[in-house]
Amino acid sequence: MLIRLLSFALFQGVGALLAATFMHVFAPSHGGVVVSSLVGALGATYFWLLWDLSRGLRVMRWLRSEETREVAVESGLWGEFSNRIRRVLRNNERAVQQRDERLQEFLAAMQASPNGVVLLDREFRIEWLNESAELHFGLDARRDLQQHFANLVRDPSFAAYFSAKDFEKDVLMPGRASTASLPVRLSVHVHPYGDGRSLLLSRDVTAVEQAEAMRRDFVANVSHEIRTPLTVLGGFVETLQTLSLNDAERARYLDLMAQQASRMQSLVSDLLTLSRLEGSPLPSAHEWVDVSFLVDQCRQEAGELSRVLWGQTHSLCFEIQSGLSLAGSAVELHSAFFNLIGNAVRYTPAGKSIRVVARAMDDGGALFAVHDQGMGIAQEHIPRLTERFYRVDRSRSRDTGGTGLGLAIVKHVVQRHGAELSIASVPGEGSNFQILFPPHRVQFLPEPAPAEAIAA
Ligand code: ADP
Question: Which of 31, 226, 269, 399 has the fewest Cβ atoms surrounding its Cβ within 10 A?
Answer without folding.
Answer: 31
